[in-house]
């Protein structure tokens, strides 16, 4: 009977996020196509950059190729030790829309990116801001369509989720889970009908907002200790009484977040304590993800192997009789639970053009994701929270 109970638990825990995914996928749309009859506001594209020589040129040039919108590009060199500033200066000599500025010294209690974004907002001359990570590449119509989405959605802060490019094995397994987690566990309908901060979410790689809303909220200053502005900034907007929204930017932007296994591990770990590994949440995520995503295939393999090789899973004679009687039903239930758990990942793999390896090793990816979260927790317990790019987490800074 224990196996039957576990099978029901697995099926329910797989079905709930799968059903939410199916609802959300209908609501997670691309920004509207460009309406040439409605003029768009000029945009300040604000790019914080720290040691980004590998990608900063491609990022800036993709922005400069934007159509249907007037823009300026401000890159803030945040104490880079490489050629980031030099590369941008060369571009600026050929295009007056680009300028490079030096970041102020990092203040106590601030994370580097949040201080850089806040400083950029003070340098902007236009009243629509786009905060863009230096590893993002935009299509020519991306900025204009995002500006239209900001207007059409009625939100004050909007965020696009780019296509995530992956190379290493750990990237292929873990990075696609960004879209999967969003659509399996955040009710987009609720996000658009209730202003609760718990519904706040976004992708820190690309935000668009207005100067008026940004300044009323307090901008990045209100999330200055955060390493995870993808969650922190939308929630700050909602706490201040503003609306936020998200959109599918798969066909408008690409991003290669990390380029090594260690980059993926520590990059995700630095955000973990503000998301899944936050106090009071890690228990839910551990149970929900293991029961719904790992338990179905694991139990199916165990029961199927026992059936094929005649292995008894119960030590009690009466239990053996019951087990043999319900084994076909168990396999059917577990097979359905396994299929249901994989359906959102399959749909996401096709829709967002993700690696098929992530789908095939989905339970492994879930276990690795949870391992990152618990790693971040233990680091925090021992007083060594995960830093980033040579900087300690602000709460541990002197």
UniProtKB/TrEMBL annotation:
A Pfam cross-reference name: Glycos_transf_2
Domain Glycosyltransferase 2-like: 44-164
Residue intervals passing through the bilayer: 6-28, 282-309, 321-340, 360-382
InterPro entries hit by this protein: Glyco_trans_2-like (IPR001173), Nucleotide-diphossugar_trans (IPR029044)
Main localization, broad class: membrane
Tagged with keyword Transmembrane helix: yes
Subcellular localization(s) per the UniProt record: Cell membrane
Alphabetical keyword list: Cell membrane, Glycosyltransferase, Membrane, Transferase, Transmembrane, Transmembrane helix
GO molecular function: glycosyltransferase activity
Cellular component GO terms, alphabetical: plasma membrane
Name the UniProt record assigns to this protein: Glycosyltransferase 2-like domain-containing protein
Organism: Gemmata massiliana
